[in-house]
Amino acid sequence: GSLTPRSNDSPVGDGEVVPRAESPPPSPETERSPYFGAALLLVQGAAVKALGAGTVESVKPLRNLSGKLTLGSIGEFPAKAQRTQIVRLAEEKVAEDAPFTMSSAGEAEGDSWQASLVDWASGAVKAPVVR
After folding, report:
1. pLDDT (tens digit per residue) in 13-37
2. Phi, psi of 82 (to 5 degrees)
3. Which end of the chain, N or C, is less surrounded by CB atoms within 10 Å?
4. Whole-number Å distance between alpha carbons of 57 and 27
5. Strand, helix or coil at 121?
6. Which residues, other chains included, contact 97 with Cβ-Cβ below 8 Å and sequence gap of 6+?
């Protein structure tokens, strides 16, 4: 995943704006991956802790187990130091090897799970996560 400004255009010095390419379609394979669900919770928790706020507005699973996480309730695009802190916090959480808890969300259509990385982040995922 990556942190990107909300606009579909990128500023390029002197006020020049270059249109961004269209976003690729979501990947159902990635969405159902237990690795994607685990990584999503890890990055979500790190981002919220580093930024001091932020709610998940949307998640878009992309090819090759990548994705786009859009946070709301933050005033502006994170500064370089904040983005570096997100990476550091995520790496520390991985090194901690904290367990995930899983529970069935009981949806009638397909499997859905509620995953939690205790004291970090929780959310709905399409498959049990892998630690």
Report:
1. 566 777 778 888 999 898 888 888 8
2. -70, -40
3. C
4. 18
5. strand
6. 131
Query: Residue 101 pLDDT > 70, yes or no?
Result: yes
pLDDT value, residue 61? 92
**CA 22 – CA 84 distance, rounded (Å):** 27
Q: Is the pLDDT of residue 2 over 60?
A: no
The alpha helices in 4-112, defined as continuous H runs, are: 28-31, 34-51, 80-96
Output the pLDDT for position 69: 84
Distance from C-alpha of 110 to C-alpha of 51, rounded to nearest angstrom: 34
Q: How far apart, in whole angstroms, are the C-alpha atoms of residue 29 and residue 127?
A: 11
Q: Which residues are bridge partners to 121 per DSSP?
A: 117
